[in-house]
Amino acid sequence: IGIFDSGIGGFTILHPLLQSRNDIDVFYLADTDRIPYGNKDFEEIRSIAKEICKWFKDKNLDALLIACNTTNACALDILEKNLKIPCFDLINSVSDIVSKKNIGVLATPATIESSYYKKIIEAKGENVKVFQQACPEFVSEIEKTHPDLNKLNYLTNLYLNPLLKENIEEIVLGCTHYPLIYDILKNKIYSNIRIIDPSIALVNKFNNSFLISINNCCDYISYDNVSFFVTAQREEFSKKLKYWFGINKKISLVNLRTND
Ligand code: DGL
Fold first, then answer.
1. 52 lines ligand 1 (CB under 6 A)
2. Strand 170-173 with 129-134, pairing
3. What pLDDT, in 10s, does the model give residues 22-33?
4. Is residue 74 annotated as a catalytic residue, yes or no?
5. Would you put residue 51 in left (φ > 0), alpha (ψ -120 to 50) or beta?
């Protein structure tokens, strides 16, 4: 299985996946050289997606789990066309789990600009309304080896307030980095607003298609069958894995750029 993101956001997919089964080998690719993706323009995100496909091409994958909403929103067609394997995406998984009428979406500027979440969710019914909010500074702050909690609190207020004014009933975390600050977000919203993490829907969809045998339920999470690859800052990535997830794994440095 291939999983990719610009950084550690893909863990919000990797973690529930490994929690649900232990019968798969994973290549986890983090394009740390070019993070954040979400502040880049549409064409650049599409050309990076082509390089990602090239890198995954000889890995003999059975499926790709797209752990990056930004690439999902701007280049899903490129991933599907080039890899020709089942590609499980976040945005098309979310309509299975939203259930209310007034819905907020927090995501990167590129994802918001695409309005992909808005289109998919509003297609559920005529009176479903989506309010979008771009969060340009979240990813860079979360990716620091020691995130500044004061800054994260300040940014959370800044990004949430416009949505709260719209009386939203559910809020979609439209970037895989945001579930990492779930507790901060949860503290700032009314208790009746449901937080929706599309990664859970994606992992369920994958598990329904690639059946788990009964012996594969896990009592604990093991990262033994996961190989980690980054495109820059190997040491920093390793520190972040320890800080956020308490794991210590070998990380390999790779080059995605086709013209280097
Ligand atoms: N975690 C990714 C996403 O879901 C990418 C964030 C970024 O690099 O800006 O959009």
1. no
2. unpaired
3. 899 999 999 999
4. no
5. alpha
